[in-house]
Amino acid sequence: MHINSKLPNVGATIFATMSKMAKDYNALNLSQGFPDFPVSPELIEGVHHYMKAGFNQYPPMTGMPQLRERIAEKIEKSYKAKVDVETEITLTSGAIEAINATITTLVSKGDEVIIMDPAYDAYEPIVTLNGGVTIPVALKQPNFAIDWETVREKVNAKTRMIIINSPHNPTGAMIDASDLAILAEITRDTNIIVLSDEVYEHIVFDGRVHESILKHEELRQRSVATFSFGKTFHATGWRIGYMVAPDWITAEVRKVHQYMAFAVHTPSQLAIADYLEDADHYNNLGAFYQQKRDMFLELIKGSRFESLPSNGTYFQLLSYKNISEKPDLEMAEWLTKEKGIASIPISVFYDTKEDNRMLRFCFAKSEETLTKAAEILCAI
Q1: Which of 141, 194, 209, 246 has a CA between 20 and 30 Å from the CA of residue 379?
Q2: In the predicted model, is pLDDT for residue 159 greater than 90?
Q3: What is the pLDDT, as a whole number, of residue 10?
Q4: How far, in Å, CA of 282 to CA of 331, rounded?
């Protein structure tokens, strides 16, 4: 029998590949972006409470009303934006399902979707599955800023969507208010939808402020913003995210969402709703992760690796240009197999597979893990 593959050039993701390699070679796993420290006991107890209380059946397709109300309050506190609880907020199976449902709803055969290269690796396959074409625009080094002039040149009658991601995976770069102003000007009087991936919204450093697209009133009217409780509350395996969009977009995306996932774990939603009542649980996240970033950088100061700025996310790029001429995928494999530490090669995030001899390390780890990782890197 023969299967006509819809993604003939896609195999297992680099995250699954490197995590498996880390397990196979008993290496420290700083590749895939998940914490190795516990979820809050308060949050765990909250889920347990609601399970014992009998909240174990389907929630509403749009999400538990208690959680949608807390999300609306959080958005108003964080971004001074008012969103409608009933028509603009939808709980999803992780932010990736929100992204998938949005692209599936809005992108049709022949549509073009502009992405910023390097880009999170899920965007392009999802666009391809829906018959669209991704148009990569390389971020400008060394700071990985968006090249708006090139974006402007790439926009045409076929452009259906522009995807932005801030704080940015894999680089840790962030957009600012001037970026949103330019994006608004480029998309004004067009049919372009903006998809804003904001899963690391609260993991920002050095006094920086996350510029959510929800803060820009004009862009809000043509945008979908996606978020992740898994990233925010150290529980990536719970797969709970949400999307915020104007009612006319939400109504259409929910049609797809109901057949893609329908709903997400009921007791977890209720526990998160209670947990969100204390804003410190997310407002202190930046300081929490900045301490880990700073510790990691201090520990590797004596190594031959060069660090690039990380303004947000829990990822740190390290250049090994002074160490080896190996291609980054080969270097990542060598480090895992021979030195016992797993990372992610940055070339996999590029449409062109551009190789700048950089690796991405996740510092959402315990102090013990980071100390062991630094010892390995300093010995190379």
Answers
A1: 141
A2: yes
A3: 82
A4: 36
Burial of 105 (0-12, 13-18, 19+ CB in 10 A): buried
* Residues whose CB falls within 8 Å of the CB of residue 322, separated by 6 or more in sequence, listed in order: 304, 305, 306
Contact 243, 40 (CB under 8 A): no
d(CA 105, CA 281): 33
Res. 12: pLDDT tops 90: no
Compute the distance between CA of residue 99 and CA of residue 47 in angstroms, rounded to an integer.
Answer: 26
Check if the beta carbon of residue 369 is closer than 8 Å to that of residue 138: no
Split at pLDDT 50, 70, 90, the class of 11 is confident
Encoded tokens for 222: 């043509």
Supply the pLDDT for residue 1: 86
- CA Rg value for the chain: 20
| Mean pLDDT, residues 280-296 | 98
Share the mean pLDDT of the chain: 97
| DSSP class per residue in 327-358 | -HHHHHHHIIIIISEE-EEGGGG-TT----SE
In sequence order, the 6+-apart residues with CB closer than 8 A to the CB of 216 are 177, 180, 181, 184
Helical pair 94-106 and 247-260, crossing angle rounded to 10 deg: 110
Token couple for 182? 């330019």
Q: Determine contact, residues 214/225, Cβ cutoff 8 Å.
A: yes
pLDDT for res 2 = 87
Q: Give CA–CA dist 100/342, Å, rounded.
A: 28
pLDDT in tens, 90-135: 999 999 999 999 999 999 999 999 999 999 999 999 999 999 999 9
The strand pair at 344-345 and 28-29 is best described as: unpaired
pLDDT band at 152 (very low <50, low <70, confident <90, very high): very high
Nearby residues of 3 by Cβ (< 8 Å), 6 or more positions away: none
As a whole number of angstroms, the distance between CA 363 and CA 379 comes to 19
